[in-house]
Task: structure prediction
Amino acid sequence: MARKIYSSLSFRRNTPGSSVGSVKRLSRFTGHLFTFSYKSFGPNRRRPRRNTDEQPLLLLATKDGEQIWKADNGQRYIWGFNLNYLPARKRAEILRKMSDKINKTPGVTFTFKQMLDIIDLTPGTEKRLFRKYDVRGSKLRYLKQVDLNTYRDYLDRSQRPRT
Result:
């Protein structure tokens, strides 16, 4: 049930956070957690490839100090860990650790290696969770910064047994 809620289109509307507007404005935001709508394209660029997760919840990593980085092929990407692939309990645990680190040093950014240490995943899991997203064209839309603490509270409320 929870997995369906987190991956639905209504999740974007109901997720606490503020709209970034466009990827170009991303550098103005100091947050670490973002959600967006993403469409990837297959070999035939006119037909979208079916995504397994159209609404990623990305814990953003930096590369060489940049949130948006340019690859050798000239394309621009953002990358990080898609937390939608984790159970809600593990997600809440990771967000607690991240909040603690951020509260100790506000404005800090994290590299891939630093995030791996914080997240403490089982070996091999990082390959499943770590994703890069092409930011050109209409592939990445409705970018929204999500507040770590508010989202963690949201997860805690959703995990409580209903009476």
Q: What stands out?
A: The radius of gyration is 16 Å. The mean pLDDT is 76.
